[in-house]
Amino acid sequence: MDKKTIVVIGNGMVGHRFCEKIVGKTDKFNIMVFGDEPRRAYDRVHLSDYVKKKDVDDLYLCKSDWYVRQNIKLYLNDPVKSINRTTKTIQSSNGVVIEYDFLVLATGSKAFVPNIPGVEKEGVFVYRTIEDLDLIKSYSVSVHQGVVLGGGLLGLEAAKAMMDLGIPSVAVIEAAPRLMPRQIDRGGSEILRRRLEQFGLSVYADRRAYRIEGDGSIRELRFDDGSVIKADMLIISAGICPRDELARECGIDVGERGGIVVDEYMQTSDPSVFAIGECALFEDTIYGLVAPGYEMADVAAARICEEGKIFRRFDMSTRLKLVGVEVASFGDPFMEAPYARTIVFEDKNDGIYKRLNVSNDGKYLLGGILVGDARDYNLLLQTVNNRLELPDSPGDLIMHTKEPTGTADGAGLSALPDNALICSCEGVTKGEICRAVMEAGCENADSVRQCTKAGSGCGGCMPMVKDLVAAAMKQQGKYIRNVICEHFSLSRQELYDLIKIHRLESYDEVLDALGHGDGCEVCKPLISSLLASIWNDMILRKGNDTAQDSNDRFLANIQKGGTYSVVPRIPGGEITPDKLVVIGEVAKKYGLYTKITGAQRVDMFGAYLDDLPLIWEELIAAGFESGHAYGKALRTVKSCVGSTWCRFGLHDSVSFAIQIEERYRGLRAPHKIKSAVSGCIRECAEAQSKDFGIIATEKGWNLYVCGNGGGKPQHALLLAADVDSETCIRYIDRFLMFYIRTADPLTRTATWLNKMEGGIEYLRNVVVNDSLGMAAQWEAEMEDRARDYRCEWKAAVEDPEIRKRFSHFVNAPGEKDPTVKFEEMRGQKRAADWTLV
Amino acid sequence: METIATTEWLAACRVEDAVKNGGVCVRHGNEQIALFYFTRRNEWYATQNECPHRRQMALSRGMLGSVGEEPKIACPFHKKTFSLSSGECLSGGECAIKTYPVKVENGLVYIGLDD
């Protein structure tokens, strides 16, 4: 037994990080960990998430067997009672006595509870642990007015938790004249207060609690100015108190106001005893953030392993989201004249406050504050930390006259030195990220995260990591093309041209001629879509059926449980009563759930694979055809009722929508395409949220392009104004062909335009002014395509080879999948929920 | 001492009933087995038809492919991929799927069921 023993007291975030660091370096120590909470280390930073989640599993920092696998003995629910430095032993509450060679105190902090009369009353809580939160949760059920004492970071977190618990009225009390006095200045604080009040939080600053009133349980809170606030629950979050009792009792030096004194190696006055995290006092400072705690864990582990690493005064820059408001401070946030010049931008309308502190010569950024919009945080922090020279008008750094770009510009990044800290949670530098790309072969941000841990903490640095990866790849000449997958070293655009030039007509031909390997779920649907765009063949012929995405392969949309939904085309949303009756009859006959879609059609859900051809036959007999709801294709051209009925309508929007839908139906594209026609400026068809939308004017039509609804809404831009119907269609022909030829896979028109150099001006030049000289060819191709259009459902039911595939069991044709389950809801059926293992 | 595993062979379908470069679903009592004819590689594979991710009877409608030399199947629901040779989940997180031996004799495809 010549292994030395490390005893760690405390199993919080920092104590856990210390264990990770040690076992990452060596296995030559016996490690014992004592924790006083009943559970293993969890993420205290995201404690307020626990309110909304069912269980604690998402918060744990490691799997349940991690400690066992690392040969670490973990004693939970067993606080250490005493330390004997003479015998170098500790004794736990359960009577375990262990001899140590190194002792690491990671005891953290507890909530500071001011000595206010009445704090012992029921309904008064602190906010530190999961147990605290459980108590708060169960008490909160009948609470109407919740109050938090303390308007700092933790206090606002606690207020958020109260709001998430559904407490109808929540107030925050701060003794100082403003919120977050340690992080932000008065101006920032004021904006923060306004924003929080908008979210329904009441804020009372400059109030000191004097007494907690109530009969057994809290009823109200009295202040020293005589005012009173009603409260049937109170969370005290007035600061933290380092837990230094154990050290104090065994004679280790502690600070006057608490905290275990440590040197730059995290060693206490007894060199075999270390202190890390919120219990440690370094240069008269307690660091109450997790990043410096992690750094301390790293330094202590290095010292024990005899590596030279020291702790330096830590940057307290931080970026947080408090009750939905972004708050960040960096460098020295408060520095002002005569030591610095300040630039302040304040927007009370949108609730944004930004402050930069610039050196007197205007050359360097020294610190600053961001409230309400912290997207520039990373770049500004790097500018401070690396003493990057500022541009001539540094104010431009925080003024955004254009749309947000979301990431730092490339030039700013390349100016950073290699030791610039990109991920402060995990302490990862620019150099380490670049090496992960250049040497370890990482080719995207996710693999860099796995390799370096950058971005695995708060995730705020991920946009920078992405940009760094792109830049490093470019530098290596690696990132020249957007190649599709391991089977094709070509971009979609290159494949488009090569398929055409070589006249390749099936997936296998393309793979043989241009790719290698056996294909995959990325290149197969992509090439199938290209083949459909270029040759306009029935998509299930020539062996291309198995290269189609599942929905295309079965010409229907697969739904929960493995049944399909069927959407017949209803051009422009116009349908006769007879056809409506047919839909109803078919749905009844095959037991389908029916719903009106967002695109003015009727969707029928719950069709068995075996029933699809039968359903289509009945629909086709009544004059319906496929609506291509399953394809990356034109979906619907929505319309308002237009001039035929509407007293405001300028033109017949329905007829034009039908004409357009019939011209482009079945057109395969990089992604789905949606369209609409509105009969007047009231825009009832919402054409400006479509890939291409048309709005009637006094003189003709306005054509808008590249709009998007969905998750990332974007208004369409005007491509051409007051054009006649024929011109409008010619422009759409060109627009769509240009999109199909040049867009990246699975890129909607909005994103395609956003990435296009020259933007809408360039697009207008290509489409309207024919700057590429392609207009005539594109129009002719589109004309041919429209002429050769055939309904895919009809082709499928008429072809016995294709039809044969609509059967669940190959050895029991006609027998339906017996595992499909439905439930009943509002007089119709619904799919049974996923059954999870 | 040696035990000899007894394999029962289920006659699944004729070669021409299988889908080229795709899958079909074979019923065996209450069980569903996905049978794949990877024509491009001239290989046959069989696995459970249920994707373990959301427990959907769907792998036979999935898409065949390869990663390196490894043949794989992608589930049509959420594109989880599984090795056809080992059954291992290649997109992480899911448990492995069961695989079965396949043989072709006189134009008939058989799936091996171990007892």
From TrEMBL, chain B:
The keyword Oxidoreductase applies. Residues 10-111 form the Rieske domain. Pfam families: Rieske_2 (PF13806). Coiled coil: none annotated. Transmembrane segments: none annotated. It comes from the Bacteria. Keywords: 2Fe-2S, Heme, Iron, Iron-sulfur, Metal-binding, Nitrate assimilation, Oxidoreductase. NCBIfam families: nirD_assim_sml (TIGR02378). This is Rieske domain-containing protein. The lineage of its organism: Bacteria, Pseudomonadati, Bacteroidota, Sphingobacteriia, Sphingobacteriales.
